[in-house]
Amino acid sequence: MSRLPFELLLAFRYLRPKRTYVSIITLISIIGVMLGVAVLIIVISVMSGFDQQLREKILGFNAHLKVFRDTPMRDYREAMRIVSANHLVRGVAPFVIGPVLAETEPEDSQTSSNRESPQVLAPFIRGIDPGRESSVSILPSSIKEGRFDVSGNGVLIGSELAQAMGLDVGDKLAIYSPRSFQEMREGQKHHEEVFSLPDDFVVKGIFDVGYYDYDANVVVCSLANAQDLYDLNDSVHGLLVMLHDPFQADEARTQLRQSLGPGFVIRTWMEDNSGILNALIVEKNVMFYLLFFIVVVAAFGITSALITFVVQKTREIGMLKALGATSGQVMWLFLSQSVLVGVLGGVRALGLGMLALAYRNEFLHFMNRLTGLELFPASIYSFNLLPAVIAPGDIAIICGGSLVVCLLAGLLPAWNAGRLKPVEALRHE
After folding, report:
1. Beta strand pairing status for 265-268 and 154-158?
2. φ and ψ at 71, to 5 degrees?
3. What is the pLDDT of residues 93-151, one digit of tens each?
4. How far is the C-alpha of 249 from the C-alpha of 269, rounded, in Å?
5. Which of 4, 22, 115, 396 has the highest local Cβ count within 10 Å?
6. How many other β-carbons are positioned within 10 Å of the β-carbon of residue 6?
């Protein structure tokens, strides 16, 4: 004999397919729970993947802390010495960054790109110390064409920017800096015709850090060239600081403020990117609440099936109570059915969700070919592939929450069944 309580035995028996109206509703309820939970698992995992990938891309090209003053830093070497002495700091490097106007060579250029007309864009130029850059970013290891070389008049450009401007390794790039426009404005004040020639550079490498905004909007040159473009002499805009643990940024900032003294401004990577990071968190929470209503809708199917089932089994309920079954046991009989529906739907949803996440990019490419549209454009989402992170905590919350909803869905029919009196139930036609 089975050691299971009779409530569970009857619940299993009643859930067996019998080609009845109630069985069809029960099957629909299981499918509804399965689809709702699976969609939740897929969407929340993808949103978690977005969050993690975005943080990795941001931290790959940007430092964990930025140290600067209200004016260009002249004493940056002393500040670097103080910052690097902190035990939380892994690396530090000076930087110069700002907008410029970049123009490709005219059509008579002998380069391999054979452009018909010059291309003009306004990217940001970032001046780096090549000897220190590997300690604060992944740029040296992200070169896809050419080499990591900013010596002389060499520059590195992002892969998306290279494609937009039609540039290859070895092509020349003319850059107009704020210094050039300042010279022309000064000449106009003195009623003089002043034309400032741009600075000529050669593309020595094309990088791909995996984040669209950086790949499409950044030109990298040596620190000395950037200082000349911005007329900084021996000053820099600030320091990039990389920590051993990026989530210790607030603690490191507190310590560095004490070490550096007044006059320095320190910003964390979370503050610099708070808008997009907070938007992702809000979007993830909103998607969770909206999609959870799919499970709630499926729970109404459970309620409908159990109400119908209670009506059909009223005489059997009366017999059970006449034989000594308590109201609690009768209630648990019907609650067990709703829990079993939730478990069956949740287990199948977990398998379906894991399968969909495993083949998410293959499905995405198939839909792109089928529709002829780019359903996941990198220019908008900044990623070339659909990211996903399967967080055990999120899975537990989704599956546990769906089980609770299914249990609550069966509470009202179970309570009505438990309060039936044996005599009235046996008289039921």
Report:
1. unpaired
2. -120, 165
3. 999 998 888 888 655 444 444 445 678 888 999 999 998 888 888 888 889 999 999 98
4. 8
5. 22
6. 13
- Residue 75 CA to residue 18 CA, distance in Å, equals 83
- pLDDT number for residue 147: 92
CB burial string 117-148: b at 16+ within 10 A, e below: eebeeebebbbbbbebbebbbbbbebbeebeb
Q: How many whole angstroms separate alpha carbon 287 and alpha carbon 398?
A: 12
> Minimal CA–CA distance to 220: which of 156, 145, 162, 139?
156
- Which residue stretches of the chain have pLDDT < 50? 1, 108-115
Residue 196 · residue 180 · CB < 8 Å: yes
What is the Cβ-side half-sphere exposure of residue 152, based on CA atoms within 13 angstroms?
9
SS (H, E, C) the chain: CCCCCHHHHHHHHHHCCCCCHHHHHHHHHHHHHHHHHHHHHHHHHHHHHHHHHHHHHHHHHCCCEEEECCCCECCHHHHHHHHHCCCCEEEEEEEEEEECEEEECCCCCCCCCCCCCCCEECCEEEEECCCCHHHCCCHHHCEEEECCCCCCCEEEEEHHHHHHHCCCCCCEEEEECHHHHHHHHHHHHCCCCCCCCCEEEEEEEEECCCCHHHHHHEEEEEHHHHHHHCCCCCCECEEEEEECCHHHHHHHHHHHHHHHCCCCEEEEHHHHCHHHHHHHHHHHHHHHHHHHHHHHHHHHHHHHHHHHHHHHCHHHHHHHHHCCCCHHHHHHHHHHHHHHHHHHHHHHHHHHHHHHHHCHHHHHHHHHHHHCCCCCCHHHHCCCCCCCCCCHHHHHHHHHHHHHHHHHHCHHHHHHHHCCCHHHHHCCC
Sign of CA dihedral 392, 396, 399, 402: negative
How many other C-beta atoms lie within 10 A of the C-beta of residue 364?
15
Task: Decide: 323 and 425 in contact? Cβ < 8 Å.
Answer: no
Write out the two tokens for 368: 């792109």
Half-sphere exposure of 36 (CA within 13 A, CB side): 31
Q: Are 292 and 37 in contact (CB under 8 A)?
A: no
Q: What is the pLDDT of residue 114?
A: 47
CA dist 309 and 409 (Å) reads 14
The torsion angles phi and psi of 170, rounded to 5 degrees, stand at 100, -15
